[in-house]
Structure formats: C-alpha cells, structure tokens
Design goal:
The protein is α+β, with helices and mostly antiparallel strands. It has one domain (10-207). Helix content is 31%, strand content 16%. The strands form 4 sheets. The chain has a 4-stranded antiparallel beta sheet with strand order 1-6-9-10, covered by helices on one side. The N and C termini lie far apart (80 Å).
C-alpha cells in the first residue's frame, strides 16, 4: 500500500495567513501606542524643563527672557520656542543673547534635533549655522513649543485652553479647535505646551498645567 502524502489545503493556508495578519495588526497597534505614549512623555518633560529654565532665568535677572520689543504691560504674552526666544536661554553669542543674558548662562540644554524636512526638525534643539549657539526647540512631532508668560506679574493668567494663542512663524504650534472644561485662569507665571500628534485637536495638546 503506497503512503499518502500529507499537505495543507488552500483553506488551511488562508486561515493561517489570516491569523498571522491579525496578530501582526495587534502587535503593530501596541507598538504604535507605546511610541505615542513615549513621545507624549518626552514632550511633557521637555516642556517642563523649558518652564524650569525660564524660572531659573527669572531668578537670576528678575525679568522674563522676552525678546526685545515684546511684552510691554500686557496681561500675558505668547511666544514660540524659535531662535529669537531660545537664544536667550541657550546663552547664545548673539546681540540679543549678550544683551538679555549678559552672563551667557545656558539655562536650557537638550539633545540635537533630527531633520524632518526642509527647515523642519523634530525632538530637540536645531542650532543655527552661524556658530553663535542660537537655535530653536522642536517637539517630537515636528512643531515648536508654545509659551505663555505672565508679563504683568498678576499671579494668574488666561488659560490657553479658553484664550487660544495666535502664534505666527513657520511650524508654530497650533492650539486646535474644541472646548475645554479646564479653569479659565491659571495660577501660573509660565506655561508651555506642544501641539501634540494632531495639531488641529485641542484635547491632544501636551501641556505643563
């Protein structure tokens, strides 16, 4: 009696392939969720470090690191973590850096940003090519950070969730749309935020309050 050669039917092969595809999808979703969580944590830490750097600057100079000509007597002022703001905290050898941070103290430091595209970076400091030490600070999704500072020293300021900032400049962080149940005023002197993964959804923002 000749032996019967065992083999897989087409249906069995398709079932196995379907199971593999389902498992791969589950693993991919899990890995993607972990990456998103890690990016949010990283953005939160960077934003907190930036706020602490501003507090340290204020402790030394008794003023906030606002670029020349901005602020005034407004209740609060909004900024972007671009070169003109960060050069002061980085202790850059620029005119503004020397004028507003004459000690040249580097209040903020971090990893070097990775290039994401033309004039766009991700997750770190993008130093200018001038060699002055000036640079801009980027979040994990390729946007700069937003900042609101209590310029009038009132001890509180409008929550950006209710009074959205209007920031200009390339890759400035957008607040997004939607309503918020948060407090209308914050008992903070400095707040920092990132646009998050979805720049057009307010609830996706990463904030320091």
């Amino acid at each position: 009696m000749s032996g019967v050669k065992a083999g897989y039917t087409l249906i069995e092969i398709m079932v196995v392939m379907s199971i593999i595809a389902i498992l791969a999808g589950i693993l991919f979703s899990g890995a993607k969720a972990l990456i998103d969580t890690a990016r949010k944590t990283d953005a939160k830490n960077t934003a907190s470090n930036l706020r602490n750097a501003i507090a340290a600057y204020h402790s030394d100079y008794r003023r906030y690191p606002a670029p020349a000509g901005s602020g005034g007597k407004a209740a609060h002022v909004d900024y972007v973590s671009d070169d003109s703001f960060m050069e002061i905290l980085l202790g850059a050898r620029t005119d503004a850096g020397r004028k507003l941070n004459p000690k040249g103290t580097p209040y903020f430091s971090g990893r070097t940003a990775k290039r994401l595209g033309a004039n766009r970076f991700v997750n770190g400091i993008s130093l200018s090519q001038s060699g002055s030490g000036a640079g801009s600070l980027w979040d994990p999704w390729g946007y700069k950070y937003g900042l609101r500072i209590d310029s009038s020293n009132q001890g509180q300021m409008a929550n950006p969730a209710h009074n959205p900032p209007s920031l200009s400049g390339s890759w400035a962080p957008q607040w997004g749309s939607g309503t918020s149940t948060e407090l209308k005023y914050l008992s903070e002197s400095v707040v920092v935020w990132s646009s998050g993964k979805e720049a057009d959804i307010a609830s996706d923002n990463v904030v320091t309050w």
